[in-house]
Amino acid sequence: MTVELLLEGRNNAVSTLQYSSSKGFQVDGYDANRFRDRWGLIHARQMHGSFYDPLLMKPSRIGIEYLMPIFTDAIGSDDAEHMRQTLFNPGNLAQPYHSINTDVHKRIRYLETVGD
Q: Taking the model in full, what pTM does it have?
């Protein structure tokens, strides 16, 4: 999959192997910037060994019990409504994207080197 991503011109991507009982194994790719913090670093996600069954390649019973409330209550109706009103606002189609990086770049001042 990594080679396929490169052939598609996606050189800043992470290939992943996913499994579901209905579809089996699937290979996918994600933009690596999705995993970076605000300083551009990617941090490995640590998980306690009891949360994963390496033989079955899926969360263990304890892992499922732990994650179930998170998956069940992760997004409420108010969250979905907020996303609908902001991310999917039709006005976003006509407005340019506002980048905080552009705002910061406008305010950067470089010191000139003064000769002795």
A: 0.36
C-alpha 67/C-alpha 106 separation (Å) is: 43
Q: How many CA atoms lie within 13 Å of 42's alpha carbon, on the beta-carbon side?
A: 9
Confidence of residue 57 (pLDDT cuts 50, 70, 90): confident
Residue the block writes with tokens 């079955």: 56
* Burial class (CB within 10 angstroms; exposed 0-12, middle 13-18, buried 19+) of 63: middle
- What are the tokens at 93? 């189609």
Dig out the tokens for 31 from the structure.
């933009």
Indicate if the alpha-carbon torsion angle 110, 112, 113, 116 is positive or negative: negative
3-37 per-position pLDDT tens digit: 777 888 888 888 877 777 788 777 778 888 888 88
